[in-house]
Amino acid sequence: MANFDFSTLAVHAGEEADPETGAMRLPIDMATTFKLPPFGAKLIDALQMDTQNPPHAYTRWSNPTLRALEERLVALETIELSAAVQSNKKIAGVVTASGMAAVSALFLTLLSKGDHVVASEVCYAGSVELLGTHLPRLGIEVSLVDTSDLDQVRSAIQSNTRLVYIETPANPILRISDIASVVEIAHNAGIPLAVDSTWASPALQQPLALGADFVIHSLTKYINGHGDALGGVVIGSQKEIQRIRKEMLVHLGGALSPFNAWLILRGVVTLGLRMQQHCQSAQQVAQFLESHPKVTRVVYPGLASHPHHDLAKRQMSAFGGMLTFQLKGGLGATISLSEKVKVFQYATSLGHAHSLLFYYPTEAYFDAATYLSPAQKSGIRKWVGDGIVRASIGLEDPKDLIADLDQALRARSFRGLVGPMAYQILKSKQ
Ligand SMILES: *Cc1c(COP(=O)(O)O)cnc(C)c1O
Fold first, then answer.
1. Distance, C-alpha 84 to centroid of its chain
2. What is the mean pLDDT of residues 293-298?
3. Pair 177, 148: CB distance under 8 Å
4. Phi, psi torsion values for 25, nearest 5 degrees
5. What topology does CATH give the domain 6-30+63-268?
6. What is the pTM of this model?
7. Contact 72, 216 (CB under 8 A)
Protein backbone atom coordinates (compact mmCIF):
# COMPACT_ATOMS: atom_id res chain seq x y z
CA MET A 1 0.00 0.00 0.00
CA ALA A 2 3.13 2.12 -0.18
CA ASN A 3 2.19 5.05 -2.41
CA PHE A 4 -1.38 5.70 -1.36
CA ASP A 5 -2.59 8.80 0.37
CA PHE A 6 -3.96 9.18 3.89
CA SER A 7 -7.66 8.55 3.30
CA THR A 8 -6.98 5.52 1.11
CA LEU A 9 -4.71 3.98 3.73
CA ALA A 10 -7.24 4.75 6.46
CA VAL A 11 -9.77 2.60 4.55
CA HIS A 12 -7.50 -0.20 3.31
CA ALA A 13 -4.23 -0.64 5.23
CA GLY A 14 -4.05 -3.83 7.28
CA GLU A 15 -7.44 -5.16 6.14
CA GLU A 16 -8.03 -7.21 2.99
CA ALA A 17 -11.09 -9.09 1.75
CA ASP A 18 -11.17 -12.60 3.20
CA PRO A 19 -9.81 -14.93 0.47
CA GLU A 20 -12.36 -17.63 1.32
CA THR A 21 -15.60 -15.74 1.91
CA GLY A 22 -14.89 -12.37 0.27
CA ALA A 23 -15.91 -10.60 3.51
CA MET A 24 -14.56 -7.07 3.27
CA ARG A 25 -14.40 -6.44 7.01
CA LEU A 26 -11.93 -8.39 9.04
CA PRO A 27 -13.75 -10.66 11.51
CA ILE A 28 -13.10 -9.98 15.20
CA ASP A 29 -10.75 -12.69 16.37
CA MET A 30 -11.64 -13.00 20.04
CA ALA A 31 -9.58 -16.19 20.46
CA THR A 32 -7.03 -15.95 23.25
CA THR A 33 -5.14 -19.02 22.05
CA PHE A 34 -3.81 -20.11 18.67
CA LYS A 35 -2.79 -23.59 17.60
CA LEU A 36 0.94 -23.77 16.99
CA PRO A 37 3.17 -26.03 14.92
CA PRO A 38 4.26 -29.16 16.81
CA PHE A 39 6.97 -28.62 19.40
CA GLY A 40 10.34 -27.75 17.87
CA ALA A 41 12.86 -25.04 17.21
CA LYS A 42 10.29 -22.99 15.22
CA LEU A 43 7.91 -22.84 18.16
CA ILE A 44 10.62 -21.64 20.50
CA ASP A 45 11.48 -18.86 18.01
CA ALA A 46 7.83 -17.89 17.82
CA LEU A 47 7.49 -17.61 21.58
CA GLN A 48 10.62 -15.51 21.84
CA MET A 49 9.02 -13.17 19.34
CA ASP A 50 12.30 -12.13 17.82
CA THR A 51 10.77 -11.64 14.41
CA GLN A 52 8.38 -8.85 13.43
CA ASN A 53 5.41 -11.12 12.67
CA PRO A 54 5.73 -14.37 14.63
CA PRO A 55 2.80 -16.79 14.36
CA HIS A 56 0.03 -15.79 16.74
CA ALA A 57 0.29 -17.81 19.93
CA TYR A 58 -1.56 -15.93 22.65
CA THR A 59 -3.56 -12.70 22.34
CA ARG A 60 -1.60 -10.82 24.99
CA TRP A 61 1.37 -11.02 22.61
CA SER A 62 -0.35 -10.80 19.22
CA ASN A 63 -3.64 -11.50 17.50
CA PRO A 64 -4.88 -11.04 13.89
CA THR A 65 -7.26 -8.18 14.75
CA LEU A 66 -4.62 -6.37 16.81
CA ARG A 67 -2.04 -6.84 14.07
CA ALA A 68 -4.38 -5.37 11.44
CA LEU A 69 -4.84 -2.27 13.59
CA GLU A 70 -1.08 -2.01 14.17
CA GLU A 71 -0.45 -2.19 10.42
CA ARG A 72 -3.01 0.50 9.67
CA LEU A 73 -1.70 2.86 12.35
CA VAL A 74 1.91 2.42 11.16
CA ALA A 75 0.77 3.14 7.58
CA LEU A 76 -0.92 6.38 8.67
CA GLU A 77 1.92 7.51 10.92
CA THR A 78 4.65 6.98 8.31
CA ILE A 79 2.95 8.62 5.35
CA GLU A 80 5.38 11.54 5.24
CA LEU A 81 8.44 9.47 6.09
CA SER A 82 10.56 8.88 3.00
CA ALA A 83 10.67 5.27 1.80
CA ALA A 84 14.45 5.20 2.29
CA VAL A 85 14.26 6.25 5.95
CA GLN A 86 11.34 3.91 6.49
CA SER A 87 13.06 0.79 5.16
CA ASN A 88 16.21 1.74 7.02
CA LYS A 89 14.42 2.13 10.34
CA LYS A 90 11.76 -0.58 9.80
CA ILE A 91 8.88 1.09 11.64
CA ALA A 92 6.47 -1.03 13.70
CA GLY A 93 3.70 -0.43 16.21
CA VAL A 94 2.29 -2.10 19.27
CA VAL A 95 -1.27 -1.46 20.45
CA THR A 96 -2.08 -1.34 24.16
CA ALA A 97 -5.13 -1.36 26.42
CA SER A 98 -5.24 2.46 26.73
CA GLY A 99 -3.21 5.55 25.97
CA MET A 100 -1.75 5.39 29.48
CA ALA A 101 -0.73 1.76 28.91
CA ALA A 102 1.22 3.01 25.87
CA VAL A 103 2.87 5.83 27.86
CA SER A 104 3.79 3.55 30.77
CA ALA A 105 5.03 0.84 28.36
CA LEU A 106 7.40 3.34 26.77
CA PHE A 107 8.73 4.71 30.07
CA LEU A 108 9.11 1.36 31.80
CA THR A 109 10.85 -0.25 28.83
CA LEU A 110 13.26 2.57 28.10
CA LEU A 111 14.04 3.74 31.63
CA SER A 112 15.69 1.96 34.54
CA LYS A 113 16.77 2.96 38.04
CA GLY A 114 19.43 5.67 37.81
CA ASP A 115 18.28 6.89 34.38
CA HIS A 116 16.94 10.37 33.71
CA VAL A 117 14.08 11.61 31.50
CA VAL A 118 13.33 15.14 30.30
CA ALA A 119 9.60 15.70 29.77
CA SER A 120 6.92 18.34 29.17
CA GLU A 121 5.94 19.93 32.51
CA VAL A 122 2.34 20.20 31.32
CA CYS A 123 0.89 17.17 29.62
CA TYR A 124 -1.94 14.70 30.01
CA ALA A 125 -2.73 14.41 33.74
CA GLY A 126 -2.01 10.67 33.87
CA SER A 127 1.36 11.10 32.16
CA VAL A 128 2.46 14.01 34.35
CA GLU A 129 1.48 12.07 37.49
CA LEU A 130 3.43 9.05 36.26
CA LEU A 131 6.43 11.29 35.59
CA GLY A 132 6.08 13.42 38.71
CA THR A 133 5.41 10.73 41.30
CA HIS A 134 5.78 7.13 40.10
CA LEU A 135 9.03 7.22 38.12
CA PRO A 136 10.93 8.95 40.97
CA ARG A 137 9.61 6.24 43.34
CA LEU A 138 11.31 3.69 41.06
CA GLY A 139 14.61 5.56 41.19
CA ILE A 140 14.24 7.27 37.80
CA GLU A 141 15.18 10.95 37.73
CA VAL A 142 12.72 13.28 36.01
CA SER A 143 13.15 16.88 34.80
CA LEU A 144 9.85 18.50 33.93
CA VAL A 145 10.44 21.58 31.76
CA ASP A 146 8.56 23.83 29.37
CA THR A 147 9.51 21.97 26.18
CA SER A 148 8.28 24.85 24.02
CA ASP A 149 11.39 26.67 25.32
CA LEU A 150 14.37 24.97 23.62
CA ASP A 151 16.89 26.40 26.11
CA GLN A 152 15.04 24.64 28.94
CA VAL A 153 15.23 21.32 27.05
CA ARG A 154 18.93 21.82 26.25
CA SER A 155 19.93 22.65 29.80
CA ALA A 156 17.88 19.83 31.34
CA ILE A 157 19.87 17.12 29.53
CA GLN A 158 22.30 15.20 31.77
CA SER A 159 24.83 12.44 31.21
CA ASN A 160 22.26 9.83 32.36
CA THR A 161 19.35 11.16 30.24
CA ARG A 162 17.84 8.26 28.29
CA LEU A 163 14.67 9.81 26.87
CA VAL A 164 13.14 13.15 25.94
CA TYR A 165 9.35 13.07 26.05
CA ILE A 166 7.10 15.81 24.70
CA GLU A 167 3.40 16.21 24.22
CA THR A 168 2.37 18.59 21.46
CA PRO A 169 -0.15 20.15 21.36
CA ALA A 170 -0.07 19.75 25.14
CA ASN A 171 -3.17 18.71 27.04
CA PRO A 172 -4.88 20.81 28.38
CA ILE A 173 -3.15 24.15 27.75
CA LEU A 174 -2.30 23.80 24.03
CA ARG A 175 1.34 24.73 24.24
CA ILE A 176 3.13 23.69 21.04
CA SER A 177 6.67 22.27 21.14
CA ASP A 178 8.95 22.40 18.10
CA ILE A 179 9.42 18.69 17.27
CA ALA A 180 12.25 19.13 14.71
CA SER A 181 14.27 21.40 17.04
CA VAL A 182 13.82 19.11 20.06
CA VAL A 183 14.88 16.18 17.83
CA GLU A 184 18.09 18.06 17.04
CA ILE A 185 18.85 18.73 20.71
CA ALA A 186 18.06 15.15 21.77
CA HIS A 187 19.91 13.48 18.90
CA ASN A 188 23.01 15.66 19.39
CA ALA A 189 23.15 14.12 22.86
CA GLY A 190 22.41 10.61 21.49
CA ILE A 191 18.98 10.47 23.14
CA PRO A 192 15.71 9.33 21.54
CA LEU A 193 12.66 11.61 21.39
CA ALA A 194 9.12 10.37 21.97
CA VAL A 195 6.09 12.52 21.05
CA ASP A 196 2.56 12.09 22.40
CA SER A 197 0.74 13.27 19.27
CA THR A 198 -2.79 12.39 20.44
CA TRP A 199 -4.22 15.90 20.07
CA ALA A 200 -3.10 16.23 16.46
CA SER A 201 -3.63 12.62 15.30
CA PRO A 202 -1.64 11.35 12.29
CA ALA A 203 -4.00 13.36 10.06
CA LEU A 204 -2.48 16.69 11.20
CA GLN A 205 1.04 15.95 12.44
CA GLN A 206 3.73 13.42 11.49
CA PRO A 207 6.42 13.41 14.21
CA LEU A 208 8.43 10.53 12.67
CA ALA A 209 8.96 12.56 9.47
CA LEU A 210 10.28 15.38 11.68
CA GLY A 211 12.83 12.97 13.15
CA ALA A 212 11.10 11.73 16.32
CA ASP A 213 11.93 8.15 17.34
CA PHE A 214 8.62 7.21 18.96
CA VAL A 215 5.04 8.38 18.54
CA ILE A 216 2.32 7.68 21.08
CA HIS A 217 -1.43 7.99 20.65
CA SER A 218 -4.35 7.50 22.89
CA LEU A 219 -6.54 5.70 20.34
CA THR A 220 -9.45 6.51 22.67
CA LYS A 221 -9.50 10.05 21.28
CA TYR A 222 -9.52 11.12 17.59
CA ILE A 223 -8.28 7.85 16.07
CA ASN A 224 -11.28 5.84 17.26
CA GLY A 225 -13.31 9.04 17.35
CA HIS A 226 -16.60 7.62 18.61
CA GLY A 227 -16.11 7.65 22.37
CA ASP A 228 -16.69 3.92 22.71
CA ALA A 229 -13.29 2.19 22.97
CA LEU A 230 -10.13 2.73 25.00
CA GLY A 231 -6.81 2.00 23.31
CA GLY A 232 -3.24 3.15 22.84
CA VAL A 233 -0.31 2.67 20.50
CA VAL A 234 3.46 3.13 20.50
CA ILE A 235 5.09 3.41 17.07
CA GLY A 236 8.86 3.33 16.54
CA SER A 237 11.67 1.22 15.16
CA GLN A 238 10.86 -2.47 14.89
CA LYS A 239 13.65 -3.39 17.31
CA GLU A 240 12.42 -1.11 20.11
CA ILE A 241 8.77 -1.99 19.51
CA GLN A 242 9.58 -5.69 19.81
CA ARG A 243 11.21 -4.92 23.13
CA ILE A 244 8.15 -3.01 24.32
CA ARG A 245 5.86 -5.83 23.16
CA LYS A 246 7.89 -8.37 25.06
CA GLU A 247 8.48 -6.43 28.26
CA MET A 248 5.21 -4.56 28.53
CA LEU A 249 2.61 -6.86 27.01
CA VAL A 250 4.11 -10.23 27.79
CA HIS A 251 5.44 -9.32 31.24
CA LEU A 252 3.18 -6.49 32.45
CA GLY A 253 0.07 -7.38 30.50
CA GLY A 254 -1.60 -4.17 29.23
CA ALA A 255 -2.97 -5.78 26.04
CA LEU A 256 -5.83 -4.34 23.98
CA SER A 257 -9.05 -6.32 23.55
CA PRO A 258 -9.55 -7.52 19.94
CA PHE A 259 -13.10 -6.17 20.18
CA ASN A 260 -11.76 -2.66 20.84
CA ALA A 261 -9.20 -3.09 18.05
CA TRP A 262 -12.03 -3.92 15.65
CA LEU A 263 -14.01 -0.84 16.72
CA ILE A 264 -10.92 1.33 16.34
CA LEU A 265 -10.23 -0.12 12.87
CA ARG A 266 -13.72 0.97 11.96
CA GLY A 267 -13.43 4.38 13.61
CA VAL A 268 -10.13 5.30 11.99
CA VAL A 269 -11.60 4.87 8.49
CA THR A 270 -13.12 8.37 8.74
CA LEU A 271 -10.25 10.04 10.64
CA GLY A 272 -9.25 12.36 7.77
CA LEU A 273 -12.80 13.56 7.16
CA ARG A 274 -13.58 13.95 10.84
CA MET A 275 -10.42 15.95 11.51
CA GLN A 276 -11.32 18.38 8.70
CA GLN A 277 -14.66 19.06 10.37
CA HIS A 278 -13.20 19.24 13.92
CA CYS A 279 -10.66 21.82 12.69
CA GLN A 280 -13.13 23.96 10.72
CA SER A 281 -15.64 24.05 13.55
CA ALA A 282 -13.00 24.71 16.23
CA GLN A 283 -11.70 27.69 14.21
CA GLN A 284 -15.22 29.16 14.04
CA VAL A 285 -15.95 28.55 17.72
CA ALA A 286 -12.56 30.02 18.69
CA GLN A 287 -13.23 33.17 16.65
CA PHE A 288 -16.71 33.51 18.15
CA LEU A 289 -15.36 33.18 21.70
CA GLU A 290 -12.45 35.54 21.06
CA SER A 291 -14.90 38.31 20.11
CA HIS A 292 -17.28 37.61 23.03
CA PRO A 293 -17.36 40.28 25.77
CA LYS A 294 -17.62 37.69 28.59
CA VAL A 295 -14.51 35.82 27.42
CA THR A 296 -11.13 37.14 28.52
CA ARG A 297 -8.86 34.76 26.62
CA VAL A 298 -9.09 32.02 24.01
CA VAL A 299 -6.17 29.70 23.32
CA TYR A 300 -6.41 27.95 19.95
CA PRO A 301 -3.37 27.27 17.72
CA GLY A 302 -5.34 28.50 14.69
CA LEU A 303 -5.75 32.02 16.15
CA ALA A 304 -3.07 34.64 15.41
CA SER A 305 -3.19 35.42 19.17
CA HIS A 306 -1.76 31.98 20.05
CA PRO A 307 1.89 32.45 21.11
CA HIS A 308 2.95 29.47 18.97
CA HIS A 309 0.66 30.11 15.98
CA ASP A 310 3.55 30.28 13.47
CA LEU A 311 5.13 27.08 14.76
CA ALA A 312 1.75 25.30 14.64
CA LYS A 313 1.36 26.46 11.02
CA ARG A 314 4.74 24.95 10.10
CA GLN A 315 4.42 21.75 12.06
CA MET A 316 0.77 20.81 11.63
CA SER A 317 -1.39 20.67 8.51
CA ALA A 318 -4.33 22.18 10.46
CA PHE A 319 -4.91 23.30 14.04
CA GLY A 320 -7.05 20.58 15.59
CA GLY A 321 -10.34 20.40 17.43
CA MET A 322 -9.27 21.46 20.93
CA LEU A 323 -9.36 24.96 22.45
CA THR A 324 -9.44 26.56 25.87
CA PHE A 325 -11.04 29.75 27.12
CA GLN A 326 -11.30 31.84 30.26
CA LEU A 327 -14.36 33.73 31.45
CA LYS A 328 -14.51 37.22 32.93
CA GLY A 329 -16.73 35.92 35.75
CA GLY A 330 -14.18 33.25 36.77
CA LEU A 331 -15.34 30.06 38.44
CA GLY A 332 -18.86 31.44 39.09
CA ALA A 333 -19.39 32.09 35.37
CA THR A 334 -17.98 28.67 34.53
CA ILE A 335 -20.48 26.94 36.83
CA SER A 336 -23.32 28.79 35.09
CA LEU A 337 -21.95 27.87 31.69
CA SER A 338 -21.74 24.19 32.59
CA GLU A 339 -25.35 24.27 33.81
CA LYS A 340 -26.75 26.04 30.76
CA VAL A 341 -25.11 24.29 27.82
CA LYS A 342 -27.42 21.95 25.92
CA VAL A 343 -25.43 20.76 22.90
CA PHE A 344 -22.05 20.76 24.66
CA GLN A 345 -21.83 18.15 27.42
CA TYR A 346 -19.92 18.84 30.61
CA ALA A 347 -17.55 15.85 30.56
CA THR A 348 -13.92 14.90 30.43
CA SER A 349 -12.19 13.16 27.48
CA LEU A 350 -12.07 14.49 23.94
CA GLY A 351 -11.82 13.72 20.25
CA HIS A 352 -15.22 12.27 19.54
CA ALA A 353 -18.44 13.26 17.83
CA HIS A 354 -19.90 14.97 20.93
CA SER A 355 -18.68 18.43 21.86
CA LEU A 356 -17.40 18.44 25.45
CA LEU A 357 -16.48 21.07 28.03
CA PHE A 358 -14.36 20.55 31.12
CA TYR A 359 -13.05 23.05 33.68
CA TYR A 360 -9.52 23.01 35.12
CA PRO A 361 -9.21 25.27 38.19
CA THR A 362 -5.54 26.26 38.40
CA GLU A 363 -5.45 25.98 42.21
CA ALA A 364 -6.69 22.38 42.10
CA TYR A 365 -4.01 21.46 39.58
CA PHE A 366 -1.26 23.13 41.60
CA ASP A 367 -2.48 21.42 44.80
CA ALA A 368 -1.86 18.05 43.14
CA ALA A 369 1.30 18.98 41.22
CA THR A 370 3.64 19.15 44.19
CA TYR A 371 6.61 18.48 41.88
CA LEU A 372 6.29 21.88 40.14
CA SER A 373 8.50 24.76 41.30
CA PRO A 374 7.07 28.23 42.09
CA ALA A 375 8.69 29.57 38.89
CA GLN A 376 7.05 26.83 36.83
CA LYS A 377 3.70 27.54 38.46
CA SER A 378 3.87 31.22 37.63
CA GLY A 379 4.82 30.40 34.02
CA ILE A 380 1.83 28.08 33.73
CA ARG A 381 -0.45 30.65 35.38
CA LYS A 382 0.42 33.07 32.57
CA TRP A 383 -1.32 30.68 30.16
CA VAL A 384 -4.23 29.56 32.24
CA GLY A 385 -5.06 32.39 34.68
CA ASP A 386 -7.28 31.11 37.51
CA GLY A 387 -8.58 28.27 35.38
CA ILE A 388 -9.47 27.22 31.86
CA VAL A 389 -12.50 25.70 30.23
CA ARG A 390 -11.25 23.04 27.85
CA ALA A 391 -13.47 22.45 24.83
CA SER A 392 -13.35 19.44 22.55
CA ILE A 393 -15.20 20.56 19.44
CA GLY A 394 -17.24 17.66 18.09
CA LEU A 395 -19.01 16.95 14.83
CA GLU A 396 -22.26 18.83 15.44
CA ASP A 397 -23.08 21.78 13.17
CA PRO A 398 -20.78 24.67 14.20
CA LYS A 399 -23.75 27.09 14.03
CA ASP A 400 -25.50 25.06 16.74
CA LEU A 401 -22.34 24.95 18.85
CA ILE A 402 -21.91 28.72 18.65
CA ALA A 403 -25.60 29.35 19.41
CA ASP A 404 -25.34 26.99 22.40
CA LEU A 405 -22.35 28.84 23.85
CA ASP A 406 -23.98 32.18 23.09
CA GLN A 407 -27.15 31.35 25.08
CA ALA A 408 -25.15 29.72 27.91
CA LEU A 409 -22.85 32.74 28.26
CA ARG A 410 -25.89 35.00 28.85
CA ALA A 411 -26.61 33.16 32.11
CA ARG A 412 -26.10 35.10 35.35
CA SER A 413 -23.00 33.88 37.09
CA PHE A 414 -22.56 33.02 40.76
CA ARG A 415 -21.18 36.33 41.92
CA GLY A 416 -18.15 36.35 44.14
CA LEU A 417 -16.63 33.18 42.77
CA VAL A 418 -13.83 34.98 40.95
CA GLY A 419 -10.08 35.12 41.43
CA PRO A 420 -7.41 32.62 42.42
CA MET A 421 -9.11 31.60 45.70
CA ALA A 422 -12.56 30.95 44.19
CA TYR A 423 -11.96 27.21 43.98
CA GLN A 424 -10.92 26.97 47.66
CA ILE A 425 -14.00 28.99 48.68
CA LEU A 426 -16.28 26.69 46.71
CA LYS A 427 -14.58 23.60 48.12
CA SER A 428 -14.92 24.84 51.71
CA LYS A 429 -18.69 25.34 51.20
CA GLN A 430 -19.26 21.79 50.00
C1 LIG B 1 -6.30 10.92 26.92
C2 LIG B 1 -4.87 11.12 26.71
C3 LIG B 1 -3.95 10.14 27.12
C4 LIG B 1 -4.37 8.89 27.87
O5 LIG B 1 -5.15 8.05 27.07
P6 LIG B 1 -6.17 6.96 27.68
O7 LIG B 1 -6.59 6.22 26.45
O8 LIG B 1 -7.28 7.73 28.34
O9 LIG B 1 -5.41 6.12 28.63
C10 LIG B 1 -2.61 10.36 26.87
N11 LIG B 1 -2.19 11.48 26.24
C12 LIG B 1 -3.05 12.44 25.84
C13 LIG B 1 -2.52 13.66 25.18
C14 LIG B 1 -4.42 12.29 26.06
O15 LIG B 1 -5.26 13.27 25.67
1. 27
2. 97
3. yes
4. -110, 135
5. Aspartate Aminotransferase; domain 2 (3.40.640)
6. 0.96
7. no
